[in-house]
Structures are given as C-alpha cells and as structure tokens.
Amino acid sequence: MKQILLVTDGCSNVGMSPVVAAAHAKSEGIAVNVVGVLDHGDVGELGASEIDEIARAGGGLSRLVNTRQLSQTVQMMTRKTVVQTIQLAVQKELKQVLGNGSIEALPPEKRGEVVRVIDELGETSGLQVALLIDASASMKPKLAAVEEAIHDLMLSLQARQGKSQIAVFHFPGSRHGDDCVLDMAWTEHLNGMHSIFPKLQMGGTTPTGPAIMHVVDYYLRGQDGETGRKSRYGTDGMMGDYVV
Predict the structure, then answer these.
(1) Of 7, 51, 64, 60, which is closest to residue 30 (Cα–Cα)?
(2) Predicted TM-score (pTM) of this structure
(3) 200-215 pLDDT, tens digit each
(4) CA distance linking residue 43 with residue 166, whole number of Å
(5) What is the spatial distance between Cα 234 and Cα 226, in angstroms, rounded to a whole number?
(6) What is the dihedral of CA 191, 128, 150, 143, to 10 degrees?
(7) How would you classify residue 44: left for phi > 0, otherwise alpha for psi between -120 and 50, otherwise beta?
(8) Where does the VWFA domain lie (predicted)?
(9) Residue range of the domain that includes 206
C-alpha cells in the first residue's frame, strides 16, 4: 500500500494544480493525505479549500491542526487510510463473489470474520509512506513539530507487523525553483532523519502540484530507478490492485 502525506500551511502558487496531481496519484494506486498546519491563525479559506480538494482527489484524508496536534494526526491519518484501503478492497471482492459489496449486509458471524481479516491485514500488509514537506518561508517556525511528527510516525510504523517504509521529500528545492528534493530514500529506520532538517533552506514559492507529481514518479520508478507500470501493483497479492 502506498501513501503520500503532504504537510503544508498554504496555497499552491506555481505549476500545475495540486488537485489534478493528486487525482493522478490516485489513478496510480497512491493515496494522498494532507495535513494543514496552523500557527496563531489559520491557512485561510482558500488554503483550507485546497487542502480538502487535494485529499478528496487523492482518495485520502485531510485535517487542519495546530503544531501540538501534528504528531498524533499524522499517525491517525496513516493508519486510517490503511484501514480504508483494505475495506474498499474487501468490499470489491465481496461484490464480485456475492453481488453485494456491503460488509454490513453479511450475517453477523460472517461480518465478524471479515472485520477480523481487515484488522489483520491492516497490521501485516506492506506500507510505504512518502512524506512531502512544504518548505516555504511560512513553514519555518513549524519545522520542529514536523520533525517530531515524522519521528513519531516512524516509531508507530515500526510497531506494525508488516514491512513499513518512509521516504522524505521537501519543496521547493530552491528559492526560485519549482522542483522537489528527495531528502531520505525508502527506509525502515530512523538513522539519518535528524540530519535532514538543519539543511533545509526555507523560502520561495509553493509548487505543490509539481511536487506531488515528482513523488508519484519516484513511486513508479521503484527501488531500481526504472520506470514502468509494474511498480503500480506491488507484491501484496490481491491488495496490490486495490490501493486507494
């Protein structure tokens, strides 16, 4: 299962629409969750609307939180999206087998068994989470909270039975660019994470759409760097075709 977790506090202002980019991610089997980080105010009506639209287009969740709630929210959204993904896959299987995709329509004893399987898959299925961090100037005072949230998320993922990996990106890559930078490739460990944030040069535009597309391309290239549709499906059996 694949997720992009976008952490931002403002509106995109460079490049393609982030809503279009999130819809593309969803079509490639990658869910897009968005956390809007507040700081002594809010992200504004336009920013809040964009955050919601990105998550909807990406088949994920969106939340507006202050820095104190960030760590807990990141963990909650990651796990909730895993369960949501599995539920959709199971419902699709039920519809094919029984002609009815509703778990609630099953007899109580069968329903309990399905719920047990969903819980088990939630803990054992492979999971990759790509953290995409808005490094525009307004995010600078919130960076410590973002670092803590990533650290806590990795600890939470390490407690799962299934293989869990994270990668970390930030955007923009330069003050005047619309690129996105890979800070940490797929890893199951915390080693090296604390060296990322001191190096970030905060500032510049907010090219959210191009950044999402960059992360999607990274997913599709896979570990070996080769492009190809095969990276869309993964190796998780029937779940591979049913990622949100």
Answers:
(1) 60
(2) 0.78
(3) 767 777 889 999 999 9
(4) 27
(5) 14
(6) 110
(7) left
(8) 1-86
(9) 2-84+128-233
